[in-house]
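tool=predict chain=A
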Amino acid sequence: MVIDRGFHEVSGADIPGIFDEASRQGFPVFTLSTAGRTDKEAFFLAVRETLPLDPPLGTFRMVWDALSDSVQGGLHALRSPRVVILWPDAQQVASAQGDFRIALSILRDVVATLAEARYTGGRPTRVSVYVAPVPSGGETGPAEGRAAAAP
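tool=predict ok
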């Protein structure tokens, strides 16, 4: 399996294989869990609990621009040339609206910005984001709650 840079919508059944392959290759892997919720509060909580943030986010205000800057800074501070973010309990990307649409836009921006040498001091990071919609039964599959960061 190839771990491609960029933003990808995949089947929930693909998440364990992506996790295993990225871990096998030594990439830091972060699994966001929002339990199928797509509101702002759930996304901010998942990011705070899972992703490295620099600067840290306060808990009282939820500002999208601050979240984006913090995620970009945190992932860049890892000093890893590759990073994988999994979101196995999201919704379908094609029907994204409201807060969910903004959250997906943030993740896409992180992928694009960290890929650019001019924004990373000549040290780009290839970020791969894999979003899988919750199956119709509401179960998220075996990858739920998994968070790992390989050295």
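The radius of gyration is 14 Å. The chain is about 35% helix and 15% strand.
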